[in-house]
Design goal:
Elements lengths: L1 H32 L3 E3 L4 H21 L6 H25 L7 E3 L19 H15 L4 H27 L5
Antiparallel strand pairs: 1-2
Helix pairs in contact: 1-2, 2-5, 3-4, 4-5
Length: 175
């Protein structure tokens, strides 16, 4: 029964991601209508594959490798995964129309300084949330290989490509 519930959790997470993509597409259209310029298009498909792979790997590892639900690990990880969802929507609400799964800069736009973006010490809060979720979601049902693989691959993608691209793009915004 725990496997069925876990699969439902992962599928619900996938549905949530599809909702995010709808929001992102709407915000991207608005940004482009305002003269927005996209940065980092080459690494974006890799991000999509990685994040889709996380969800598929969570299910595959639990089913194929018969990973158990260990309450002492699974319950805290479930709480953390759910808190990450709240964090994602805090980021989306804080950025408003500027939130996007892509890096699109609208000329003349200003940096957002509300929500988690008001903390100067917390750079790229969305990526911290994604990193934490990438550990917590698999570990809800002991999928430690997925947690480890996603964490390493996500760190490479973020540190080598996405964050430098975003930092360069954000440098063009007024403060």
């Amino acid at each position: 029964m725990s496997v069925v519930l876990y699969i439902a959790l992962v599928l619900a997470t996938g549905v949530e991601r599809l909702i995010e993509l709808v929001i992102s597409k709407r915000n991207a259209a608005h940004a482009f209508a305002q003269g927005g310029v996209e940065h980092g298009q080459r690494h974006f498909p890799v991000m999509v594959v990685l994040h889709t792979g996380l969800l598929l790997a969570c299910i595959a590892e639990v089913v194929l490798l018969d990973r158990p639900f260990i309450g002492a690990l699974g319950w805290p990880m479930l709480v953390i995964a759910l808190l990450c969802q709240a964090g994602r929507y805090w980021v989306i609400a804080s950025l408003g129309r500027q939130w996007n799964t892509r890096v699109i800069v609208v000329p003349g736009a200003t940096r957002v300084t509300r929500g988690p973006y008001r903390f100067a010490w917390l750079r790229h809060p969305n990526y911290w949330i994604v990193a934490i979720e990438g550990i917590a979601l698999p570990l809800v049902h002991s999928a430690w290989i997925t947690a480890l693989a996603f964490t390493v691959l996500n760190a490479v993608l973020l540190l080598a490509f996405r964050i430098p691209t975003e930092n360069r793009a954000l440098a063009a915004l007024r403060t």
